[in-house]
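Before going further, it is useful to explain how the protein records used in this thesis are read. An example of such a record is reproduced below.

***
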Amino acid sequence: MAVDPPGPTYDAADSVVGLARTLRAAGVDASPDRVHSMVAALDLVDVTSRPDVYWAGRLTLCGSADDIERYDRVFAAYFGDRPAALARRPSVPAARLRVVPASDAAPDSERDEGDDPSVAATASRVEVLRQRDIASLGQADRLALARLLAAFRLHADSRRTRRTTPARRGVVDRHRTLRRLMQAGGEPARPAWRDRRERPRRVVLLVDVSGSMSAYADALLRFAHAASHRDRGPTTEVFAIGTRLTRVSRELAHRDPDLALAAVAAGVPDWSGGTRLGGLLKEFLDRWGQRGMARGAVVVVLSDGWERGDATLLGEQMARLHRLAHRVVWANPRAGRPGFEPVAAGMAAALPYVDDFVSGHSLAALERLAGVVAGARAHA
């Protein structure tokens, strides 16, 4: 970390906003009102004290007991293990902190105590990390990214079932209404209503682990691991695609993401090989998708679209998938690069049958992808 000449000062509110974004990706409803409440709470506590910042966030950003576990996980990943989480905004111009690659920074043993400012820049660094291309990250940043992805919780789009449940509106529930009338002795009573239940849709992730995706495969599989541990709803299914199709849902069932990825690496024989997207998509549809796994599901393809085989076959199978699935989402890490155009033969053949085309090159892009899977429409 280097010190630049005096410039814009560091504002703790920026870190609170970034923390709220990460919490929303983890499934906590950290609304703008709650963010304002936390910022107001920070004015009443010592923001250089990690416990004070922790409790200020926990009491304002969490809305239920279920949020507390997620909040603890996100807080630890977001702020790291530093004793101080935030710092007050200086009242006079101060040195502006600039994050530099770990390889360029001096080792801890070579730094003077005075060179380590009281301002903990961990949160600011996370904000920088959110926007950086995963392929450009060093080892330290990849470890931070892994901690943040471990806090993800994926929420799928909902579908209406045939079963009904008591509701505030819908159709009149005749049986419950009659019981109310009988309990009231024939006097007028409020009608009871029922409506069809909603249930999260199945999510199917097809993760490209070929050589052209090697820089992104680890992060995308960690994203898939988080998606596999949804709180409720149907099981998320995950497949690794390269020169072969490998179902890795069982390997990703490990709670520990590192153990899960080690199991995936041991179970995928074609890691960093070529890509046969069309043939493997046909195999998936023939063995699993046509039988029901893809029917009404949200299917997410995480690939750069490079196809060694026949691009026409890929287009045919994408059309078939589009007819079966509720929505088809394609996340292409190359799409986050300036001047990107989907001109690769495989990508061009698949794109007409994709409902949402998003990038998957950074933590912020994966957060947006989680929102798309949850039902929000992409604006790319």
